[in-house]
Design goal:
The protein has twelve helices and 19 strands. It is an alpha/beta fold and 376 residues long. The protein binds pyridoxal-5'-phosphate (PLP).
Length: 376
């Protein structure tokens, strides 16, 4: 019996019951790392892999960039560092940007993780730990050069320097700082922070400098020190506002259609009925919403694509779904189970972020766990 005629084979659920398919292109990630390494040279490029490598999966990301020669990894938290320790060979250094919370010092030392020291008190705690273990412990000293977020404030620098001269137990691997506006090449704040960093470097002349994030890699050699710290550019985000999509896209997102319908003029669409059909229209409801990292700010603003055709989001984005206008497509082009492109060849991560009035970082780190992940 020909079952194609008598009982159509149900289409495979290619998303495996998930909201959609998140494709992470490891080869593109590797090329981005190579490009950032080349742009950083002669400085080396670390990889910032905090927040599960910006949501892409730290285990896969660290292995990929390790294969490209990356040996320095930055996370935000000590708990993230502990997870990486088990995934990486011993010839790497793992740095904790937010420093240590009181009580993690011994665990940090035992696991050969390097904390970023952000205050005099943290410096004191870390050297007490070193003394009581009778070991020299590695540290990065972070200085605030004008962002007022993390780092030793200018007035505490002399005390930090005196402290280090008295104690041989801290092996300062790098002095570092972070730029507030590296993504805006024209911002005056960059030059101010660079000037402050130069003063600090002259006060600690024997210690290597680690300064640039993704954007600053492209601001010029003065910003790079000996080790750069790119994050978003590895993952395909735009490093600076004046570069037009210079990095390769790493993430692709397709979402499954849960239902299609035709509505008449006057029909209200979605919560609070914020969209009212002006004429008959065809709609598709797709299986991802703000719980899947597609912000509610995309309500009646953003779009998805189907084979290059733009399909506007209509009405409010719900928690697990949103509705798109498919009137412009031939009838039956999109059916139950079809996949539409949310991030891909027709819509970059940056474009989606801009429609949502946010930044690529927030989109990536919000994508969450409900997609089937494919690493290619
Ligand atoms: C997150 C972070 C980075 C990476 O920044 P990108 O803009 O993603 O390249 C670098 N340094 C510090 C201190 C950070 O917090």
């Amino acid at each position: 019996m020909n079952n194609l005629v008598f009982s159509p084979q149900p289409k495979m659920d290619s998303a495996g019951g998930a909201a959609g398919i998140l494709v992470i292109d490891i080869a593109a990630l590797k090329r981005n790392y190579r490009r950032l390494s080349a742009a950083s040279a002669p400085a080396r490029a670390a990889a910032v892999v905090k927040a599960d490598a910006y949501g892409l999966g730290a285990a896969k990301v660290v292995t990929a960039v390790y294969e490209e020669g990356c040996r320095h990894f930055f996370v935000a938290l000590f708990s993230e560092a502990l997870q990486l320790c088990s995934q990486l060979p011993l010839d790497v250094e793992i740095f904790v940007l937010n420093g240590l919370l009181p009580g993690s010092e011994y665990a940090c030392a035992a696991n050969n993780v390097t904390p970023v020291i952000n205050s005099l008190e943290q410096l004191r705690q870390w050297s007490l730990t070193a003394h009581s273990l009778n070991r020299r412990l590695p540290a990065v000293l972070q200085f605030d050069t004008g962002m007022s977020r993390l780092g030793i404030p200018p007035e505490d620098r002399p005390a930090a320097k005196a402290y280090l001269q008295d104690s041989d137990k801290i092996d300062v691997r790098f002095i570092m700082s972070h730029l507030a506006s590296a993504d805006e090449p024209g911002s005056e704040q960059n030059a101010v922070q660079l000037a402050n960093m130069k003063v600090i470097a002259s006060e600690f002349p024997d210690i290597d400098v680690c300064f640039a994030n993704s954007g600053a890699v492209f601001l010029g050699e003065a910003y790079r020190g000996v080790l750069t710290r790119p994050g978003i550019a590895l993952y395909g985000g735009r490093p600076t506002a004046d570069m037009h999509e210079p990095m390769e896209q790493v993430v692709g997102l397709q979402v499954a259609v849960a239902q299609t319908r035709t509505v008449q003029a006057g029909a209200k669409v979605g919560y609070s009925g914020t969209h009212i059909a002006k004429e008959e229209m065809r709609l598709a409801t797709i299986s991802a919403g703000y719980a899947d990292g597609l912000p509610r700010s995309l309500s009646s603003r953003g779009a998805v694509f189907y084979r290059g055709t733009r399909l506007p989001i209509v009405g409010r984005v719900s928690m697990d779904s949103m509705t798109i206008d498919i009137s412009c497509l031939p009838k039956d082009a999109i059916v139950h189970g079809s996949l539409v492109e949310v991030i891909g060849p027709h819509q970059t991560l940056e474009e989606l972020a801009s429609d949502a009035e946010t930044i690529s970082y927030e989109i990536l780190t919000s994508l969450g766990r409900r997609y089937a992940r494919r690493y290619v």
